[in-house]
Specification:
Length: about 475
């Protein structure tokens, strides 16, 4: 039996059979007690759980039954590292199997598959709107709709908002290399261990993944915040699953291109150790899985109805089941070419930091935009908000950022900031880094000869919330394959 995952917009809805069964299954799982591996709250806690926050919002009853295996099974989600994509693929597989098993037991389709929210499909004018099945108060002739029972921000469509002045894109789909060198961007993130919040986001995870979380979750000001804003609440929202299904599909599409090199080294394939990835099956048994099982042709690889619409991967490149490139292109080593020498506190008021540019890069800067790419790193970011947003404007030294033009500003999203800041977490409180391509800005600022400094101007957008600190700002350059 093959479960074929389909675009919600192509299911013939609203309230196609697939969506009706999704809603019924969510309603059923919500009736199960927290210590049952197939319960809604148990499944969400595998991603991340804030026990006190869940009690405060009555997501859990007072004195809930805590499963014995809580330490091993909860708070597993892998972010800001190279296990982000395979961990979430295994997570979706477990979720889909549990829902599908119950749906089949109720006389529903035996091959029910999780649908996806294809928000970047330019053939669909309504692609960015939250699908109506997640908004309607009732379904099925008057039953309360479990899919709309979630705390969210005010936005009903994806796109720039006051608190996040940037748009989602398919830019990551053009990254050719899965695992990034330090200081540079790749598709799947840098090398990492078992890390609920690792160090730096890969391209797919950064945009669209993090952006969609924050756009749906809303800004920092309301209390409680939208669940999607916080990794310790996010998977409680039924929308989380159709969002992640699309993220997973973007990866599936990306792997079909022969120009892209999927990571297949042993440390990636085997996953972290000693703590390993563990998921429940439909019978509530817990099983370990490793990333190699998520690759095309393996047991946890998904099937999609289409890998072209809204993926940024041309049809010519995506024929048949994905292949893993045997001779991956490799980029040259990355080099640090600019760095500041102060840590910063970032609030809603712009703060400036000067970056000293080293001598070596000035000779190569004429070639920037040719076979080289330049990356801005905002490193070691910490803060008490669940997620944070920072605008960074780059200018010549002493220049007024107000004159810089909109293309000189990059918006960076730090999803899971508080988790990455907590010294009690597995991450040890070292914060998050965000890496963004600034080749165009750098070309403009550095092309006319000697450049020994640049200014970075940082501020949180409106509604940014608690202040953030930044350990370091740096600029890296990389030769492209
Ligand atoms: Cu996510």
């Amino acid at each position: 039996m093959t479960r074929t995952r389909t675009d919600i917009a192509k299911l013939g809805g609203p309230w196609s059979e697939t969506m009706v069964w999704y809603a019924r299954a969510v309603g059923e799982l919500r009736t199960r007690a927290f210590d049952q591996p197939t319960a809604w709250t148990y499944l969400a806690a595998i991603h991340g759980v804030d026990f006190q926050g869940w009690l405060n919002q009555n997501i859990l009853p007072p004195n809930p039954p805590i499963p014995q295996e809580a330490r091993r099974i909860f708070n597993q989600c892998q972010h800001a590292g190279w296990f982000f994509l395979p961990w979430h693929r295994g997570y979706l597989h477990a979720f889909e199997a549990i829902l599908g098993d119950w749906i089949a037991s109720q006389g529903g389709p035996g091959d029910w598959a999780l649908p996806y929210w294809n928000y970047l499909n330019t053939n669909d004018p309504n692609a960015r709107d939250i699908p109506s099945e997640f908004v309607d108060a009732t379904f099925d002739g008057g039953t309360t709709n479990p899919l709309s029972q979630a705390t969210r921000g005010p936005a009903t469509t994806l796109g720039p908002q006051a608190w996040i002045p940037v748009d989602i894109s398919l830019n990551a789909q053009t990254e050719t290399i899965y695992t990034s060198d330090p200081g540079t961007l790749g598709y799947g993130g840098p090398i990492s261990g078992f890390a609920q919040q690792g160090n730096a986001f890969g391209g797919n995870e950064s945009d669209p993944h993090n952006l969609v979380h924050v756009m749906v979750g809303g800004d920092n000001s309301p209390s409680p915040q939208g669940w999607m804003f916080d990794p310790n609440f996010a998977a409680l929202d039924p929308l989380f699953w159709v969002h992640h299904c699309n993220i997973d599909r973007l990866w599936a599409a990306w792997m079909t291109s022969a120009a892209h090199s999927q990571e297949t080294s042993r440390p990636w394939r085997n996953g972290p150790f000693p703590r390993q990835f563990t998921m429940p099956d439909a019978n509530g048994n817990l099983n370990v899985f490793i990333p190699s099982e998520t690759l095309p042709g393996e047991a946890l690889a998904p099937t999609y109805d289409d890998l072209v619409d809204g993926t940024g991967i041309p049809p010519a490149a995506s024929g048949g089941p994905a292949m893993v490139s045997a001779a991956p292109p490799t980029a040259g080593p990355s080099r640090l070419i600019g760095v500041n020498d102060q840590s910063l506190t970032v609030t809603g008021t712009q703060v400036r930091s000067r970056l000293a540019m080293s001598a070596a890069p000035t000779q190569t800067l004429g070639a920037v935009g040719g076979q080289q790419r330049v990356f801005l790193n905002v490193e070691g970011v910490k803060g008490q908000s669940a997620s944070g947003v920072v605008n960074v404007t780059l200018t010549a030294p002493g220049a007024d950022p107000g004159d810089a033009g909109p293309e000189a500003t990059k918006t960076l999203v730090f999803f899971g900031l508080a988790n990455a800041t907590s010294v009690e977490g597995p991450h040890g409180g070292s914060g998050l880094s965000q890496i963004v391509d600034i080749t165009e800005i750098a070309t403009r600022l550095m092309s006319d000869g000697q450049v020994d400094a640049l200014d970075a101007h940082l501020a949180q957008p409106e509604g940014g919330g608690a202040e953030l600190t930044v350990d370091r700002i740096s600029i890296y350059i990389r030769e492209e394959p």
